[in-house]
Amino acid sequence: MNKQLLIVDDDPKIAQLIEIYLTNEGYSIHKANDGLQALERIEELPIDLVILDIMMPGLDGLSVCMRIRETRTTPILMISAKDGDLDKITGLMTGADDYMVKPFNPLELVARVKSLLRRTSYQAQSQAQHSAQEHIIQVQSLQIDKLTHTVLFEDRPVKLTPLEFNILHLLASQPGRVFSSEDIFELVWKEKYFESNNSVTVHMSRLREKLIKQMDGEKLIHTVWGVGYKIEG
């Protein structure tokens, strides 16, 4: 799907020039000739990038930028006839991602637009990958995926019951920590532990047996006698 860009400038000639160059690059272009109209377009449309002039009647570009940043991280390329360092710093501090001074080379503007879109796409992919990785715990050769409730040993699935999985995930989520039977019961079963309850012992025994069998004899869960169970860090 083509990226949708919003050009905000009260000078129709500049807006048209920018539109011609960006349309030639395959982008879908929307335009606004003042700040209020720009905010309306952003609410109505899935805008991927904003090219925003600072000097406009009514609501100026700096104010528009601040309003956008209240709710969105949409990349903003600010353009202005003001070329002082303080003006650039003000624009960037307000929330703009880049700043160009008029008159500008349209080809340079296209290059900067592409750069901003690439950067945004890369950041989105990185965040998605990081989010996916947060669900996965790697312990030795064992991979535990909280999202799919699956366990793999060297790409081979390890079949566990839901309770066994939750016990394993609990221990693996804090390697090195010793969990008592009471800790495990209350965190996994979500009920108050009572002394004669041997549920943890039974499920732990089955879990360890399955892991040792699937992991070719490799011991993952260790008993700390008189205290509880742990997975080494």
UniProtKB/TrEMBL annotation:
Where does this one sit in the cell? Cytoplasm
The record ties this protein, via Pfam families, to:
Response_reg, Trans_reg_C
Give the GO cellular component terms, alphabetically.
cytosol; protein-DNA complex
Q: Which SMART domains match?
A: REC (SM00448), Trans_reg_C (SM00862)
GO molecular function of the protein, one example? phosphorelay response regulator activity
Classification via InterPro entries: CheY-like_superfamily, OmpR/PhoB-type_DNA-bd, Sig_transdc_resp-reg_C-effctor, Sig_transdc_resp-reg_receiver, WalR-like, WH-like_DNA-bd_sf
Transcription regulation in keyword set: yes
Cited PROSITE patterns: OMPR_PHOB (PS51755), RESPONSE_REGULATORY (PS50110)
GO process annotations (BP): regulation of DNA-templated transcription
Q: What SUPFAM superfamilies does the database record attribute to this sequence?
A: C-terminal effector domain of the bipartite response regulators, CheY-like
Entry keyword set: DNA-binding, Phosphoprotein, Transcription, Transcription regulation, Two-component regulatory system
Keyword Transcription carried by entry: yes
Note the PANTHER family from the entry.
REGULATOR OF RPOS, STAGE 0 SPORULATION PROTEIN A HOMOLOG
Q: What is this protein called?
A: DNA-binding response regulator
